[in-house]
Amino acid sequence: MEIPSKYDAGQVESKWYNYWMKHNYFHSEPDEREPYTIVIPPPNVTGVLHMGHMLNNTIQDVLIRRARLMGKNACWVPGTDHASIATEAKVVAKLKEQGIDKNDLSRDEFLKHAWDWTHEYGGVILEQLKKLGCSCDWERTKFTMDDDMSEAVIKVFVDLYEKGLIYRGYRMVNWDPEAKTTLSDEEVEYVDKQGKLYHINYQVEGSDEVLTIATTRPETILGDTAICINPNDERHTHLKGKKAIVPICNRVIPIIEDEYVDVEFGTGCLKVTPAHDENDKVLGDKHQLEVVDIFNEDATLNSYGLHFEGQDRFVVRKAIVKELEGLGLIEKIEDYNNRVGISERTKAIIEPRLSDQWFLKMEELVKPAIKAVLEDEDIKLFPKKFENTYRHWMENIRDWNISRQLMWGQQIPAYYYGDGKEDFVVAEHIEEALEKAKQKTGNSQLTVNDLNQDKDALDTWFSSWLWPMSVFDGIRNPENEEIRYYYPTNDLVTGPDILFFWVARMIIAGYEYKGEKPFNNVYLTGLVRDKQRRKMSKQLGNSPDALKLIETYGAGGVRVGLLLSSAAGNDLMFDETLCQQGKGFGTKIWNAYRLVHGWEVSKNIQQPKSNKIAIDWYEAKFQKALVEIEDHFSKYRLSDALMVIYKLIFDDFCGWFLEMIKPAYKQPIDAKTLKSVVAIFEDNLKIVHPFMPFLTEELWQFIAKRTPEEALIIAKWPESKPVNETLINEFDFAAEVISGIRNIRKQKNIAFKDAIGFSVINNENTGETFDEVITKLGNLEAITYTSEAVDGALTFRVKSNEYFIPMAGAIDVEAEVKKLTEELNYTEGFLKSVQKKLSNERFVNNAPEQVVASEKKKEADALAKIETLKASLASLG
Prior knowledge:
Largest sheet: 7 strands, mixed
CATH superfamily of one domain: Valyl/Leucyl/Isoleucyl-tRNA synthetase, editing domain
CATH topology of one domain: Isoleucyl-tRNA Synthetase, domain 2
Helix content: 40-55%
Number of strands: 31
């Protein structure tokens, strides 16, 4: 079958992906083989493929395809995460376009819209992963809101509650006013923002005296319930026991004393707003202060905001400052750099807010997870440097706020039967809740109509922390065949930004519910950045269209381009030219096979000695590369593994081996050599396959007619054999000799078609193993070993060996003399111009030092070149 002149990625990729799917190569069932399992970090159901997904999933596919080739039962479980905040925001936006307000819908009505949206858009990113070549077990695709997955989440909530680890508390939480939900501490990012520090005067009740407080948030004065001074601050001793009047709202508040106040900050007087600051809340509780919450859930002001009611907090900030200035109550305003918390999801500035929330106690749960990573090393992090980050988070862990004020997500299984805060039961379903409520109240007349389920949903991470277990139904059916076979999984590939959000929590859940780790190794990829080191984002517009890249360079080109620059744990500076390099690598392999495929073969000619030694040498190089590849894979240095493969094929196979065994022009190749070359090419395809699956399968199927059982995707990884280092070292020396011959041919314009004489003084006592190869690649008449220098010959050295190419018959002496004479005349003229400049004292004294130094170097170089040219002319007689 004729092979096309060019590789058509678009046609080839769809063809082979459909073939792999048709023959079910991606699917796994428990059997007698060693399992190799990866669970995908589930992308948000709202998502589309971006560069981070491309890198992360390419790495996973490389690992899973290699495991498959190594004969393991490879299982890569795909799926998506319901992403409560992001998805609910998308659905709310869509409803708004249709003129529907979320608040006008019942929970069931809203959820119907959410499910409709999910069914319409939810599978987009998984379909895009197929374009990249991802060999996931699509039959196992899971969604964190699937019935069985939700059932597992609810089961775990109830279990943890019954163990006394989940509790309901009225706490200061992080409030996202855009998503209108609470967030855990880990979902808040802190950024530096340039703001203002406002010095505001409060009147002391019953006097004309004022005291000054400093605040970055003047709008919150409407929620002040005290002024606090340090009892040891002599400046404010006279204020003890007095009261102050809050500007604008004219609320009279006590002046309290507490050593918490920093006498060095601002004026030493602190406004206390218990509803809007965590530290103020602690002070408020200690001194039994009133709590005045001035914000609505969207961070507009409520009725406590007086004439600012309904206005946004930042609008009010400007307005209230203007009003205070009009009242003469602004002492001064300073520039101030402030650390501000923003929502990781919506980027809205967080408001501290008091509310009833559900929390999970973490202090005891976290201990096995700390031990597993930091003490026993049962779970290894790659790169190891992330252990410090892990330690910091885990040793400073706080109780996890697991409730969210959203509808999209697993509804908290708490059922209220009365008016009190403690009038509730926790159960997996309402029927069980009813029985518990009857027992708790002693009221047998209760019905399900008397129960109201908590309106909050669970944090999305509370479902994804169960992912390695729940995808195999390990929570609902903890001893089923699949969880026993596939768990713990082997490798987790994810970004360091969710090391705590997801990775650490999965480890915690694994030890709590299976008594063992969820995975053996965690490979933490870097972030994909642009050439200016900026993180790629939609806002910056610096993230290329992932599918467009695949269309332009082919999936293989993009995969290789990503991995060529992605060292473990380091950020990737993405440059589209890397994809071009990846595409070029594929073209090189394609053309190499076209060359081999085009050779005629003869069974009637003997295998040349040079071919035999070339085959032995390449097999030695291949085995050495295989050892390096295995080592890199064991350390998750996939870029390094790819670079070894790249150099092996580009330099050794294409650059040397094919030249060594290539038959003369229009001559056939012997059958024995061709058979070895094809076997070598097949081994090359096997090691490239995890990185460039489509191209390699296409060539594999061109080489021979294969049954589905013989497809490359399920072929056998090359067998490791002892490495012949001696042969490799001998060739390295021979390669320098060949390069020396080629350099002289180039310098002296000796046509390659002309055979030349060649002699060597073998001071290094090198073997003659590669003499046939040197003769072929240098087009030598023969190699003569001698103990005497050859007069009138062109010469070069490799280490202490001296090599001679007789000029007689090798070059046109008359033409060479003419060429050298012209070059000598030009160089002597150049030297004179330089020396004239250097003899000019004015130039030497006034020109910059580096300019003078440059001219002196030109003089020295010209003198050296003249000496060499004269020596060359003398050798020509």
